[in-house]
Design brief:
With about 425 residues, the chain is mainly alpha-helical. It is built from 14 helices and 4 strands.
Amino acid sequence: MERIFEVSTGQINAKKQVIVMAAATAVSLFGDALLYIILPLYWTEMGLHALWQIGVLLSVNRFIRLPLNPLVAWLYKRISYRQGFILGMILAAITTFCYGAFQSFWILLIARCLWGLAWTFLKLGAYLAIPAFSDNSNRGYLFGLHKGIHRSGALLGMILGGLAVDQFGISPVMTVFAAASLLTLPFIFTGLDRKQSSTEFITNKETVPFKKVIIQQSVITVLASAMCIAVVYDGILKSTLSYLVNLQIDSEFMLVGLAVGASTLASSIQSIRILWEPWLSPLLGSFADRTARRAPVFAGLLGGAAVLMVFAPLPMPLFMFIAIMLGLQVIGTAMEVIVLSLAADVAQRSSKVHVMTTLSVAQDTGAALGPLIGYMAAEWLGITSLYVFASLLFIILSIKWLKEPAERGFQTEVNKAAPVD
């Protein structure tokens, strides 16, 4: 039976609203995901004149989000979540259309900055909304549901878009993707509450100054964990996975009669995570909701990732290496869901707006700096030392989280209610 939660605007269906938010966000990702595929291949056809311009276009949207998060959070105090999502999807449609319609670096640069703004509306809107109409019994499930659905958009954009570009060209495909973003507007208009906004959930805690909220030890621990996960998974692991695979196989190997190289295996390991997230993320989130204490579980995941990180660069049979990589991907999915739940737990006791906004900034910072840190550290320290460093980072965080339940009360009640359908 679907669970209905009482808020000041009346009865709303929390699960339905999360699905609408996540599905719209998934569609918005079509153009962005496809750009990562086609830009390195067709950069001259898209009006670029130097390879460095590719890097700028693929990273500027992440850096621009850092100052935009506080601005969008301020706007969400004055507009509804529905209005924010409508703005985000309109901007997503405009930017996706620009990717195919214009062959100019400077126009594409502006479009990527606008996409950073669109993504901030969509991501931060969900981060503020889900804690508002959830509780300890379903918070992890709803965060996992949102994450699982919206991440599928990247996979569809890469696969369907890549096939379509070969047949029809860049401009027609991007135009269709832009139209798809606009087609989500009626669903957003009818599926999200027209009045619900951050202001309706503001309590006396929300009046606490930003500095006093952020300097709390519990908040710092959550933010540091979120940033480190982004650095390690979006930076170190993603940027060095192909190199690790190449260390394990000297040349192509045969799989089901097909020759498989390092790049194919690396991309397959990365892609398979997107395949399982639509069903695994809600499952893991629901498990977190039914766990008496989220912090020790999170500490265990950090410890497990630390162990696998140590073994990842070592010589081993290929099947063991693949098992370790897949294990790291499963743990990464679980950690990303649970850290959102932990952040929402902290936000309930302090300030939803301040905590969730800063969490988004921390994740964006880690995602922006991660690839740079990964490449530079691999060159200066060597691949083995790099992964040992990542392992130590997770061990330190794991120890910290093991102490948190006793020190800061990071504890949630076991969910005794019926499961969310």
